[in-house]
Specification:
Number of strands: 0
Shape: elongated
Distance between the termini: 65 Å
Largest sheet: none
Oligomer: single chain
Helix content: over 70%
Order of helices and strands: HHHHHHHH
Length: 226
């Protein structure tokens, strides 16, 4: 006979953690692969600077292109889960589930993309174009390796998720996907959520705001140096 009962609690948490982790990894990899396009190259300089377009307009166009790129891939990588989740989980509170999923999953992917952009902007601002090109490929390789390992190790991480969260160890506070899992569960469960979810959610919101601020400040400086 079919079992109509909902999945166990920690199995549901692991499902939510997978969506958060997948968005984090997918957006990180996409941003790393394309990060050379975030700044003008020689072809852009030779072609665009000969046109009667102000430098400020070129800069605004580049920023708009980055925003469209990140938001477009963020939507494409995650929107298919939205119609599937309600049918799969049959949640008691659909609005809470959808709010938790949208804010956590989209926040996780946005943080990953913005963090890469902020890192690139800071390094390019500090090191300059010549030194940055020397370390660029190494950074891209390390970033892709770490992100892929996170995704491939999900079966191992999923088994340890209950232990990490119930013990409220400090290790989860240093792992970004757990921050956004905290947002997911806090929005889904409300005041009855475990206290660790509130701490993780606060860390995730603060980290996203700080990273976005760093990217906004560093990008114009890096653009000029490039």
């Amino acid at each position: 006979p079919l079992d109509a009962s909902p999945p166990p609690y920690w199995l549901q948490v692991n499902h939510h953690f997978f969506f958060v982790l997948y968005s984090f990894v997918a957006m990180g990899i996409i941003t790393v692969f394309e990060w050379d396009l975030f700044f003008p190259d020689l072809l852009d300089v030779f072609v665009l600077t000969t046109l009667p377009i102000r430098d400020g307009k070129l800069f605004q166009a580049r920023v708009a292109a980055i925003a469209i790129f990140i938001l477009g891939f963020l939507f494409d990588a995650n929107f298919l889960a939205l119609p599937v989740i309600p049918a799969s989980f049959d949640p008691p509170n659909l609005s809470r589930l959808m709010a938790g999923h949208v804010f956590a999953v989209f926040g996780s992917g946005l943080f990953s993309a913005v963090f890469i952009l902020a890192l690139q902007g800071v390094l390019l601002s500090v090191l300059g174009e010549h030194l940055f090109r020397r370390v660029s490929l190494v950074l891209q390789g390390i970033s892709i390796t770490v992100l892929l390992m996170l995704l491939l190790l999900f079966p191992v991480l999923s088994g340890a998720v209950p232990v990490f969260l119930q013990s409220e160890g400090r290790g989860v506070l240093y792992c970004p996907p757990f921050w956004f899992l905290g947002i997911y569960q806090r929005l889904l469960e409300g005041p009855s959520a475990l206290p660790i979810y509130g701490r993780l959610a606060q860390t995730g919101c603060a980290a996203l705001a700080i990273t976005a601020a760093v990217a906004i400040v560093a990008y114009p400086v890096a653009y000029v140096r490039r």
